[in-house]
Amino acid sequence: MSSLILLPSYAEATAEYDPVIGLETHVELGTRTKMFCGCTTVFGAEPNTQVCPVCLGLPGALPVANVAAIEATIRIGLALNCSIASWCRFARKNYFYPDMPKNFQTSQYDEPLCGEGYLDVNVDGRTVRIDIERVHLEEDTGKSLHVGGATGRIHGATESLVDYNRAGIPLVEIVTKPVTGTGALAPEIARAYVTELREVIRSLGVSDVRMEQGSMRCDVNTSLNRPGDEWGTRSETKNVNSLRSVERAVRSEIIRQAGVLDAGGRIVQETRHFHEDTGESTPGRSKETATDYRYFPEPDLVPMAPDPEWVAALKAALPELPRVRRQRLQESWGLSDHDMESVLNAGAVELIEETIASGASSDGARKWWMGELSRRANESGVELTDLAITPAQVGELQSLIDDGKLNDKLARQVIDGVLNGEGGPADVAKARGLEVVSDTGALQAAVDEAIAANPAVAEKIRAGTHAAAGVLIGAVMKTTKGQADAKTVRELIIQRLS
What we know:
The chain is of the alpha+beta class. It folds into three domains: 2-313, no CATH class; 346-432, no CATH class; 440-497, Arc Repressor Mutant, subunit A, CATH 1.10.10. It has 18 helices and 14 strands. The strands form three sheets. The chain has a nine-stranded mixed beta sheet with strand order 2-5-6-9-1-10-11-12-13. A hairpin with a 4-residue loop joins strand 12 and strand 13.
């Protein structure tokens, strides 16, 4: 049906409808063992080698709660300005998934560990407060692998394999309240929120929040309504696994829903799968309600009553949070609010900070990460952190420029080599013969050739119009394939024509 619907532009969709978004973010905690058993949580082990009777849900096996996971969840709640429950408990969430060995998930329902918090984000020059409804603790599921098909999904696959290593890993779910009044900025606000949340959790050291490995995943809820009407029916785009995709998923869903509504259709409450290659989503399953899950208190675990003194001590020991740290860095780097917001949205704060720590100036570090490297990341459809170049290498690149051994044009060629795995910047520059030529003897012939080829320009320079030297400098740069030192070339030209 969707192929028959004429989709509006994004501007048309947001001019006619008000979007309401909500985000449910799942974060795997970096504890040594699983949530309710002693199995290790190391990523990448052979399938089904990190399991035991407890996380497999075998008869007679009893769970024991992981206190390190409880502590990490409380710290996340405190960092998100949540209140910490004085008493809460686990519940059984009943549903059938082939990758959930117990056929229920030990989670929290109406009595979460943390609730009623907020996180502020900066978007388009204004601060937007995202209200947090709850932060609760549960266990992750296993992982299904569908093989024999073209898409990697169950439809069209010839067989499915299940790896239970991930089943039982401590998982924190952070649920926002509905976010309204965002208008056309809804996709950017969604991305800014997940970006900020990832930075907060990373600063706490409780998870590596590596979205590409699934240790941080986001479910994006989106609905549309005409101004003044009640909120529309929402869809839930599941397991979005990159910051860029969070933004794209909201944008594409706004366009899709607007097209359905414009055509007189209705939005179905369902889960949807986002496709990285097309930027679109396809239907998953009809969305269950809380009643469908048949929650009831977990009989094998006692309730939790965090000691207020313990909670106070955890709060006092929180590290410098990203928002405070960014304000400090912004002042140190001399950036405007707009420039700092751009750095944050690009996910480049730590990259720039580490590049400066390797010896680069703040301007040099920001120039490369926010310019050439951001462009390459966007063209490749990846995050900056996924590029095959490190902050130390960018610092080395800038050092070569500062020493006069490279110019910006040559540096971009060096970046090509680094990204291709040819080595560090100095090695690439040497192997490719890309160093700047500043020897006056080697450049003099090219300067004379440029003067001879441009007599009118040469006369202007002789007459005192030194600004015209740019034409001759460009000619020399072309002759030397960009390897001439522009400053030296200019000096030679002025000297020759004075």
